[in-house]
Specification:
two-stranded antiparallel sheet, alpha+beta, single chain
Length: 185
Amino acid sequence: MISHVTNLLLTYRSLLPSPTTLYTPSPQALLTLSGTVPITYKGSTYNIPVDLYIPLSYPVSSPRVYVRPTPTMSIKPNHKHVDSEGLLYTPYLSSWTPSTRPNLDSLVREIRDIFGSEPPVYATPTPGGGGQQQHQQRPQPPSYGSVSSSSSSTTRGATSVSASQPPNYSTVTPAGPGGKGGEGS
């Protein structure tokens, strides 16, 4: 796991690791990588905010990936690969088995390819910008049982979840010359 995470962090410097504790039934470590993944869509570069939850059993078990829209974004309804909670579904994740020698670099490459052809988020009006602000409730992290860290706690069904909050993205920043924040219409 360490070499896979290190390689990913060297390639995608916006991803930041943070430990989370998993209780199933005894405490176990879970690693969360939070940040942005750059994509190219219609000739412009955009940074898509994501959280990758890497279970203790990685690489035997696949990570869970969530799109984490900023306050100025919403998840596109009926996206082929992202549900309304931001959970990502891809062919690579669905075929994840140790015998295929999966890794995080290949996963993020697939994410970039998918989002480059169909971005999972769109820009929403900003307060005072003439339109009504659409507020999207922050999706909960994966259900691996009870997860806790130093953040606030919420309840989802009968499972108590306290999750690491990703970095506070107030805007999506350009990824390079000519890049745009968020995703254009």
